[in-house]
Amino acid sequence: MDARGQQAAAGGFDWENQLVDGLWVYPLDLVWDGLRGAFAALVADFARSVGGFPRIGAMGVSAMMHGYLVLDAAGEQLAEFRTWRNTVTHQAAEILTRAFDFNIPQRWSIAHLYRAMAGGEEHIGKISQMTTLAGYVHFKLTGERVLGIGDASGMFPIDFATGDYDKKMSNIFDNFTAGFGADWQILDILPKVLPAGANGGKLTPEGARLLDPTGALPAGIDFCPPEGDAGTGMVATNSILAEQGNISAGTSIFAMLVLEKSLSRLYPEIDMVMTPAGLPAAMVHCNNCAADLDAWAQIFGESLELFGADIDKTMIYQKLFEIALEGEADCGEIFSCNYLSGEHITGFEAGRPLFLRSPKSRFTLANFMRSLIFSAIATLKIGMDILAEGEGIKPAKILGHGGFFKTPAAGQKLMAAALETPVAVMDSAGEGGAWGIALLAAYRANGGGQGLPEFLARNIFADAAISTIRPDAADIAGFAKYLRGYKKLLNVERAAVGEFYV
User: Fold this and answer.
1) Which residue has better confidence, 215 or 234?
2) What CATH number did the domain enclosing 310 receive?
């Protein structure tokens, strides 16, 4: 993108977690295949739209937060990369939450590490660094062991006063694990925490070849600190100041509500993390969102191919989202559970996608699609209700971004009904974290001493077109009825998880 945040070119690569031996993993070889493919596609797109090879002022890396990724002293992977989708760390998360008096979600890196240490996994003594996917890629490209404050806050708790890892909790962890065979302490293996705009290092010659085997990409390009998808989502929606909120909806779905101070008490369902600008944020994170929608869209695409139709995937999504708006407000008493994996907010360690209807249900395509979309939102609503009822936190407006909002109005209208809150999107709503990290790279290159909020307000969002949809009363009532049935459906889901193995 240019200095004003306007997209010049884009490249992509589709990916998905893989369930292997009971763990959701993501092979790092595929990371590099994907990055090289995406970069090559970006360069080709730039050549078509602008001409030549892009001159890059700064770069950044964003990726899924959390999970377990540990490296040895040579920078080599010690165990499979266990992604945020895993819910096998229940006991470890509970132990650490009690010890810290601070909620440690199951997907956080420190919970995965404690589980591996308590389980006596043989690689523990060889760990030289633990990082996130963004931190790993950044390390390979620059040689720097650093992480943006937002991503770091999903690894280990951050002291809101210092903007660094909480030393009291790090001491507790080291004492807890003293007999587990490690000759390091936790702060030795965590990446250095950096705020937005800090120097994240430069692209090395080795990193340039990793990203672009053609040799056209020069070394020496500045990098901003790597950030997780939550932080880049806040930047992409200009939602980094207190009392602002945003929703990122794609493979997973989460809401970020920026706070002036910490919550009054611990909520096991709610994460406390940091914004890239260093403010505390309450995070309602759900492991499952669009994966089941993706599967059904694939089936519809295959059906069309059977009849000789070659319809673009984007168009299939658009039409399916649009037809959902024609469905009955309560989905015609059709219910769906989108749990491909476990879901901590509702207490599931595994998932089985379900679809349920009765002989009296109105089984139409419009009701079917509306049910799938409501299912993708339902668990988020359950988590948001915890904040509203326990802390009185209900944002006046939510900014939405991610693939869920690519179809104009559809996802936005249904999200507004579910949350009973106006939902706003910008023209860039479908771009998600990639655009957010590009903005952070632009801030690194062109910030000029401004704070991040000022830079975004003046340079990027001053003339941004924003569309806001207010919730419709009938849609609100329809979703509320659907949610009551959805909560009952979770009893069926619990039985399916216990009895049906794949």
Assistant:
1) 215
2) 3.30.420.40
